[in-house]
Design brief:
With 338 residues, this protein is mainly β. It contains two helices and 23 strands. It folds into three domains: 121 residues, Immunoglobulins (Immunoglobulin-like), CATH 2.60.40; 80 residues, Immunoglobulins (Immunoglobulin-like, Sandwich); 110 residues, Immunoglobulin-like (Sandwich), CATH 2.60.40.10. Strands 1, 3, 4, 5, 8, 9, 11 and 13 form an eight-stranded mixed beta sheet that branches. Strands 10, 12, 14, 15, 17, 20 and 21 form a seven-stranded mixed beta sheet that branches. Strands 16-23-22-18-19 form a five-stranded mixed beta sheet, with helices on one face. One of its GO terms (biological process) is cell adhesion. One of its GO terms (cellular component) is cytosol.
Length: 338
């Protein structure tokens, strides 16, 4: 509240002079029953606060004060704050109404009454509550598997908000404790995804924000399927790999890299690749290698295109040793986009 420059003290009622001399700065304030001590009034930020005060008779001299000075003396308004008015629903009421309450309104208020017998004061302490609001949260982050990750979520509010973290997985794991910082040591690929920060207090509904954590890891072949085919027919070999970033694929026949030519067609999408032979001949039977690579590593799987009735490995696939130089060459080629 902003108080006016006060006039000569001779113009003030005697009760105000006494109050200005006797009231200590920062006096704790409460409600308006002269027969009891200080009351607390709790109001949410932005709402209207009414500090009640009722006098004994119409001839009483009344004033409202706070730590900054006089707000009202009788019906004369001393405060320059347009949000502050008197609330008089009947002739003996002398309540103070503060609209759009904010945190700087919190504090002590005094209703001072000069009766025919003696001065009386009633004190009210206005408490302003503020809904929780997340003021700062980590940006989306990308890290390599095995790294340490720290997520930050800071919030304001009165009372102080309680902060909780939750990993938005099907299980919806909520982390123990109430912390602004969430530390993940040696993060794994399973710990990637969205993390939800929730700031809550009893004033209103919680404020919720999310952080996306992307975990990079090298490729792993998740499925490779050999195939049998008769001559003159169409046949495909398929290879799937899991990796972040998504892997690039190459195909080899023995030690020779395969291109889209001579009836062979390679189609690769995110996480999977296929090699299709449009018209199988005797020359197409044999061993093939699917290579998957990203900037973190390279892996491979061996597949076989075989004649019907020929001997196959378990589950229709045959694992073959791949020369180290071929893996190194594949990785170098994929990274340089050769």
């Amino acid at each position: 509240m902003v108080a006016r420059v006060q006039p000569d003290r001779k113009q003030l009622p005697l009760v105000l002079l006494r109050l200005l001399c006797l009231l200590p700065t920062g006096l704790p304030v409460r409600s308006v029953d002269f027969n009891r001590g200080t009351d607390n009034i709790t109001v949410r930020q932005g709402d209207t606060a009414i500090l009640r005060c009722v006098v004994e008779d119409k001839n009483s001299k009344v004033a409202w004060l706070n730590r900054s000075g006089i707000i009202f003396a009788g019906h004369d308004k001393w405060s320059l704050d347009p949000r502050v008015e008197l609330e008089k629903r009947h002739s003996l009421e002398y309540s103070l109404r503060i609209q759009k309450v904010d945190v700087y309104d919190e504090g002590s208020y005094t209703c001072s009454v000069q009766t025919q017998h003696e001065p009386k004061t009633s004190q009210v302490y206005l408490i302003v509550q503020v809904p929780p609001k997340i003021s700062n949260i980590s940006s989306d982050v990308t890290v390599n598997e095995g790294s340490n990750v720290t997520l930050v979520c800071m919030a304001n509010g009165r009372p102080e908000p309680v902060i909780t973290w939750r990993h938005l997985t099907p299980t919806g794991r909520e982390f123990e404790g109430e912390e602004e910082y969430l530390e993940i040591l040696g993060i794994t690929r399973e710990q990637s995804g969205k993390y939800e920060c929730k700031a809550a207090n009893e004033v209103s509904s919680a404020d919720v924000k999310q952080v996306k954590v992307t975990v990079n890891y090298p490729p792993t072949i998740t499925e490779s399927k050999s195939n049998e085919a008769t001559t003159g027919r169409k046949a495909s070999l398929k290879c799937e790999a899991s990796a972040v970033p998504a892997p690039d694929f190459e195909w080899y026949r023995d030690d020779t890299r395969i291109n889209n030519a001579n009836g062979l067609e390679i189609k690769s999408t995110e996480g999977q690749s296929s090699l299709t032979v449009t018209n199988v001949t005797e020359e197409h039977y044999g061993n093939y290698t699917c290579v998957a690579a990203n900037n973190l590593g390279v892996t491979n799987a061996s597949l076989v295109l075989f004649r019907p009735g020929s001997v196959r490995g378990i589950n229709g696939s045959i694992s073959l040793a791949v020369p180290l130089w071929l893996l190194a060459a594949s990785l170098l080629c994929l990274l340089s986009k050769c």
